[in-house]
Design goal:
This protein has about 325 residues and is α+β, with helices and mostly antiparallel strands. The chain is about 35% helix and about 25% strand. The strands form three sheets. It has a seven-stranded mixed sheet.
């Protein structure tokens, strides 16, 4: 059954999300939500998730769409060391989505939001030729905030999560043009498809790192960012390389990569390390810290990538010149 009105869609949202929540004086239903005052700072982020730019409905299920549209925002909050609190949803639909489709989409979004008791504070609905999610999310920074541009020469780089795995999922799913081919891709690369379709935000690591930095009186020396465009593109952003002149010697051995990354790269006749370094869609966390915190960061589960130094990036001893992914390149 196709919803007859915007009110029908709003009723479906009400079935998945309560109207009030932590951090809200007034929830959705009025022209504006009202945020409760907080003693700590709030982190806020906004991400667009658009059909044919970020996803294709031929291999993203409605549940996947709801999940990932929120997950990319929560990953940003994780990089700030913030506790996710609430979000606002801007959604354009094509008009043919039935109640079952909408219920599945909102279920994916609600299942992820429920992990941190995130409230849906409000938003907007409209109709367009393409599906489009625009989410603004925010959270409370309970410890020192984490941000880019704090690295110094001699500091260490680390990553939390798999690199290159979601890129395998993206490439493999994009290359499968029939339902039968999609089934084969999902069977051969299950972890990669999951990483691309339903990324897992690393909130707990971000919170633990922020707490560690505060405890060690090093909040101004620990940097973190959401790794979404690949190491090649995001590393210079973390280091603020254009202004700081900093680069790094990165060590990324093949054995440190997921088996599906190695298998996919081998099938394409590519170097697995370079494939993973280009990355994209990882939604892992990339950070920097002084050497004194290295052991503690490793205990949190991070993997060391290398040392920061003046100059260009090097991957496994070879200068890296490719700029990486760019939506507008």
């Amino acid at each position: 059954m196709i919803p007859h009105s915007e009110d029908d869609i709003l009723a479906l949202l009400d079935a998945h999300f309560p109207r009030s929540g932590r951090g809200l004086l007034l929830g959705r239903g009025d022209d504006c939500a009202l945020l409760a005052p907080e003693a700590q700072p709030r982190a806020i982020t906004c991400d667009i998730f658009a059909e044919d730019a970020h996803f294709r409905t031929r291999y993203f299920s409605p549940y996947d769409l709801g999940w990932k549209s929120l997950a990319v925002n929560v990953s940003d909050l994780a990089s700030a060391g913030a506790v996710p609190e609430a979000f606002a949803l801007g959604l354009t639909l094509k008009g043919g989505e039935d109640v079952r489709w909408l219920d599945s989409c909102f279920s994916g979004m609600a299942d992820l939001a429920s992990r941190w008791h995130m409230a849906l504070a409000g938003g907007d609905l409209s109709r367009s030729a393409l599906l489009h999610f625009s989410i603004t999310a925010w959270g409370v920074v309970e410890h020192g905030d984490l941000r880019r541009g704090r690295a110094r020469a001699g500091d260490m780089l680390f990553v939390y999560g798999e690199t290159g795995l979601a890129r395998v999922g993206l490439f493999a799913l994009e290359g499968a043009e029939t339902p039968e081919a999609l089934d084969l891709v999902r069977q051969r690369y299950p972890a990669a498809c999951a990483a691309h379709l339903r990324p897992e935000p690393k909130v707990e690591f971000g919170l633990a790192l922020a707490e560690l930095a505060e405890r060690e009186d090093a909040s101004d020396r620990v940097g973190l960012m959401d790794l979404s465009d690949g190491l090649a593109r995001d590393l210079p952003r973390l280091l603020n390389s254009a202004a700081s002149g900093l680069g790094a010697d990165i060590t990324l051995p093949a054995e440190a990569l997921h088996t599906e990354v190695r298998a996919f790269a081998e099938d394409r006749g590519e170097d697995a390390e370079s494939f993973a370094f280009r990355g994209g869609e990882d939604y892992t966390l990339l950070g920097s810290c002084p050497p004194s915190l290295l052991a503690s960061v490793e205990k949190l589960g991070a993997r060391i990538l290398g040392e920061i130094r003046p100059g260009a990036l090097k991957l496994n001893g070879t200068p890296w010149t490719s700029p990486g992914f760019d939506h507008f390149a």
